[in-house]
């Protein structure tokens, strides 16, 4: 059956469906950009862009998640008003917040790689999760008698994968600042202390909460997507 931890089901979708999900991901990030709260002492507003970036990367994985962010950035570079505050244009990549925009791309890749990698590739029972998806059916009878053992193992995996998602999202948050803060300091001539005070400290608590929310929601969003695309598989 398909599980909320399964990513291979997403990867096995047709190119058309994958393209649709990438486009929907980019649209979600753009919606998050319109929810912006300006701060009086910082050129960097509080936004929900990074929440959607983390969620998309956790659900779709590194390649599709990064593709969604790349599409979003391309639309903004072309002048569409998809950046924070309904702004757009190539000039934003060279302004004080340009490093954060580049950091979004790195964040999606880092989050997706960490969420999809490691033990998840070996432990999510790929044959049970994805074998026979093209036919859309599973032989449920072959698992009779294994329910208690499978349930115990499944619960342990769910807990482990939730921690993995949370760690991946936390790393994704830091990836944004890894590029954003140095670029902010360079463009505005700040020393490191001031750059961190202006471009990091006002946002980190909120970003931690957004990362926790993304990690909590990702399994359910992934499950709903798999149920939509593979209704007879689990």
Assembly status = single chain
The average pLDDT score comes to: 83
Terminal residue distance: 4 Å
Which blocks of ≥5 consecutive residues have pLDDT under 50?
123-138
Number of helical regions: 9
Rounded to an integer in angstroms, the radius of gyration calculated over CA atoms is: 19 Å
What's the main sheet like? Answer: 2 strands, antiparallel
Structural class from helices and strands? mainly alpha
Report the β-strand fraction as a percent range. Answer: under 5%
Element order: H for helix, E for strand = HHEEHHHHHHH
Total strands: 2
Categorize the overall geometry.
globular
Largest sheet, spatial ordering of strands: 1-2
User: Considering DSSP H and I runs of 4 or more, what fraction of the residues is helical?
Assistant: 55-70%
Describe this structure in words.
By secondary structure, the chain is mostly helical. 69% of the residues lie in helices and 4% in strands. It contains nine helices and two strands; from the N terminus they run ααββααααααα. It has helices at residues 8-11, 15-34, 49-77, 98-116, 119-123, 126-130, 147-188, 192-199, 201-229; strands at 36-39, 42-47. The protein has a two-stranded antiparallel sheet. The protein is globular.
List the helices and strands and how they pair.
Elements: H1 8-11, H2 15-34, E1 36-39, E2 42-47, H3 49-77, H4 98-116, H5 119-123, H6 126-130, H7 147-188, H8 192-199, H9 201-229
Antiparallel strand pairs: 1-2
Helix pairs in contact: 2-3, 3-4, 3-7, 3-9, 4-7, 7-8, 7-9
Question: Can you summarize this structure?
Answer:
With 234 residues, this protein is mostly helical. Helix content is 69%, strand content 4%.
């Amino acid at each position: 059956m398909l599980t909320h931890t399964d990513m291979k089901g997403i990867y096995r979708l047709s190119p058309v469906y994958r393209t649709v999900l990438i486009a929907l991901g980019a649209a979600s990030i753009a919606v998050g950009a319109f929810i912006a709260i300006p701060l009086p002492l910082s050129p960097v507003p509080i936004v929900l862009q990074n929440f959607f970036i983390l969620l998309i990367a956790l659900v779709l994985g590194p390649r599709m998640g990064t593709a969604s962010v790349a599409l979003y950035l391309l639309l903004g570079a072309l002048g569409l008003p998809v950046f924070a505050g309904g702004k757009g244009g190539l000039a934003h990549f060279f302004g004080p917040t340009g490093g954060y925009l580049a950091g979004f791309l790195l964040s999606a890749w880092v989050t997706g790689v960490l969420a999809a990698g490691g033990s998840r590739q070996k432990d999510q029972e790929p044959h049970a999760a994805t074998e026979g998806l093209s036919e859309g059916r599973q032989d449920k009878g072959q698992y009779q008698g294994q329910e208690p053992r499978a349930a115990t193992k499944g619960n342990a995996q769910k807990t482990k994968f939730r921690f993995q998602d949370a760690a991946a999202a936390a790393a994704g948050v830091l990836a944004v600042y890894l590029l954003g803060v140095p670029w902010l300091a360079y463009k505005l001539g700040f020393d490191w202390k001031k750059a961190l005070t202006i471009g990091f400290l006002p946002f980190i608590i909120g970003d931690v909460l957004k990362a926790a929310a993304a990690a909590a929601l990702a399994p359910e969003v992934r499950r709903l997507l798999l149920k939509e695309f593979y209704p007879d598989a689990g």
